[in-house]
Amino acid sequence: MIVDRLSATRNCDEAPIPVNEDHQGIVKPSDVNHDSYIALRNAIKQLEETSKTNATRTGPRGSIGVPVSGEPLRVGTPVASLALLDVGAVPPEQSPIPDPPGWVEPKSEIKLVFRDSPLLTEAVRTQARRDVSAFREYLLGLQIPVSDEFPSIGVGAGPAKTTQVLPSMPAYRSRATIAQDWLVDRRALTAQYSNYAIEELLTRRIKNHPPNSGLQDVMAASAISGYYNRSFWDSDIGGGRWTVQLWEIRRAFGKGFTDKLVAFALKAIADDPEEEADANFDIYFYKKLRISDEVIESAPGRIDTIKAIIEKSGIDVTTPKAKLDFAATAVGRKGGTILVDLSVSNQTEIPAARGELRIYFAPDVDLLREAKGSMKDPSTTLKSARLVPFDLIAARASQKAQIELRPIAGAFRSDSLIIGLGYTCETCIKDTYDHSLKFDLNQLPAKICVNGKRCRQGSRS
Questions:
Q1: What pTM did the predictor assign?
Q2: What are phi and psi of 279, to 5 degrees?
Q3: Residue 333's pLDDT band (boundaries 50, 70, 90)?
Q4: C-alpha–C-alpha distance, residues 414 and 330, integer Å
């Protein structure tokens, strides 16, 4: 099962934890000692502690809003980490959610399409139409021109809420799914509508938006939609990176000001996404908030207080950071081994200093040749997972490594190999973007590029 990065990574806080299992093995652990069970248990405990201390969650990784079905997955296409797929969610307290303070009955009704389910009673459907319509009018009142369409709604047994969008199709052909345990939580559906509508708003002007900014679109949509869902319901439950910070700004300056601040920031992103462009999303988003504050006729010192709130939470919006990107090619060789050429590049003007690369393979493999300086990764049971320390990757420079591996007999239940890649360093952004790459083993007699296109033909050696 492959899902889009937004579905797989929403509110995932740290680097992915490799689990040596296929999808079924991950979502149906054999016992309480299974890696996926331990990982989920630890994540839930950490979330509970975070909620108690109101600490900042690092939230959504950069994710790409592309279809999760209806389009074939290409060779070498970046995919979600296997360890993060459909691991379920903790259902809310089973008590009805009341109307939020200042509730205004909607003057119009959005047309929703429901898929057949005995759980989607007429009462549930009526409430859904009422909630989504009111939420849409709330956004329209902030001069945010959101859509009056939404994917068809169904009930599932998977994660709390997922949305699968087919951008080339009418909205009803896409799907919004809510786990049955979450039907009682009215906030679940408005959260999906909020993210869908704001992403759709940004997608509408994609022709004027350079492709390399698409990732920042999705990150912005996630933060903004999460904030508005919380603000609408006047609820501080949940929320990831930047959603939490925006909520703290709301605590300091009130709902009215913060709702407008976020609305003008969204408008600034939509109208001129490359204004104040920065590879670091945190700096980029803060600059958009600063523009928005100026539009609202900034009170003296207010933006300084906003900056202090953000930086107190652990987000640095002033110091430039390095960011690393990965590329890989793979070639099949005689004897069934695979030769992988990795490239790590620093395209920023900031040197990446004193860090480590993280490499793992799923399914697990035997390593015959490793990157220089590799050490076994103690955080996982995957025997091929490696940490590669580095002192420096200079600005506008790259490093290369070659790895030779052999698939473990019986470990591969499919014809694909996923290479997971990540990094940390003292001068780098806190990278929560999943760099996993997928390769089709059936095509390895030829050299395969990570963008899904065939490179020059490679021969078996």
A1: 0.58
A2: -65, -25
A3: confident
A4: 17
Work out the number of other CB atoms within 10 angstroms of the CB of residue 28. 11
CA angle 38, 41, 45 (to 5 degrees): 135
What number of other Cβ atoms are within 10 A of residue 450's Cβ?
A: 22
Q: Smallest Cα–Cα separation from 417: which of 378, 444, 390, 392?
A: 444
Strands annotated E in 298-457: 324-332, 338-346, 352-362, 365-369, 375-376, 386-393, 397-407, 416-425, 437-440
Whether cis (ω within 30° of 0) applies to the bond prior to 170 is no
User: CATH classification of 324-443 is 2.60.40.1510, yes or no?
Assistant: yes
Q: How does pLDDT run across 177-223, given as a tens digit for each residue? A: 777 766 778 898 899 899 889 988 887 765 555 544 567 888 898 89
Is the separation of the CB atoms in 255 and 141 below 8 Å?
no
Q: What's the farthest any 2 CA atoms get from each other in the chain?
A: 71
- Cα–Cα distance between 199 and 458 in angstroms, integer? 40
| Alpha carbon distance 268, 293 (integer Å) | 11
Q: How far is Cα 80 from Cα 412, in angstroms, rounded to an integer?
A: 18
Q: Please state, in angstroms and as integers, the Cα–Cα distance from residue 388 to each residue in 324, 344, 356, 414, 421, following that order.
A: 14, 12, 5, 28, 11
Matching residue, tokens 């091929």: 384
What is the model's pLDDT at position 90?
A: 46
Domain boundaries, the chain: 101-193, 205-319, 324-443
Residue 162: φ, ψ to 5°: -140, 150
Instruction: Outline where 254-296 has alpha helix (H).
Output: 255-271, 281-295
> Exposed, middle or buried, 167 (CB in 10 Å: 0-12/13-18/19+)?
middle
The distance of Cα 138 from the centroid of its chain, to the nearest Å, equals 26
